Amino acid sequence: MTQTTAVTTATTTAPVNNTPSAALGKDDFLKLLVAQLQHQDPGNPMDSSAFMGQLAQFSSLEQMTNVAKAVDRLTASSTVMQSIGLLGHELVFTRADGSAGSGVADGVSLLNGQVSIDVGGESVSLDAVRAVGPASSPTTPTTTPAA
Q1: FRET pair for 95, CA 20 to 30 Å: which of 63, 74, 126, 143?
Q2: What are the C-alpha distances in Å from 104 to residues 36, 114, 117, 139, 144?
């Protein structure tokens, strides 16, 4: 007589954390590599070509991280320079409440990596700017010739 047993498996669903801080970085990669070397079987060591491949991956990861940081700095610098170029120009912008505003850009601020343009006492984000007009010319007093 053959007896069969039903097998049941419980499935669990756990949320996947895809935030940048949850991703493994170069420090984590290096820790894993060191742990792998410490716990390898001395009688059957890691293949040298596999080890060299992992070192090459580590080097590539480090270089990609450096390039990403450089691109971030370049982007931030470009945004600041773009904002500085708006100084003295007439800006039309949308406020957070959806209303329109306008005025002459008279300053640029950088707070927590976010650039804002000062327009008549209001702080305007660069993405809220809808139109840019010509630079306002300074007013010069007119004098009438003495008779």
Answers
A1: 74
A2: 61, 20, 10, 14, 29
Token digits of residue 32: 């894993």
Distance CA 109, CA 86 (A): 12
Please identify which residue in the block is written with the tokens 């949320």. 15
* Chain length of the chain: 147
Alpha helices in 24-133 (DSSP H): 26-38, 48-84
Largest distance between two CA atoms of the chain:
130
Domain ranges across the chain = 87-135
**What confidence tens digit (pLDDT) does each residue in 46-76 have?**
777 877 887 888 888 889 989 999 999 898 8
Give, in words, the CATH class of 87-135.
Answer: mainly beta
* Tokens read off for 6: 């039903």
pLDDT, one tens digit per residue, over 94-108 is 998 999 999 999 999
Beta bridge pairs of residue 106: none
SS (H, E, C) 41-68: CCCCCCCHHHHHHHHHHHHHHHHHHHHH
CB 91 within 8 Å of CB 119: yes
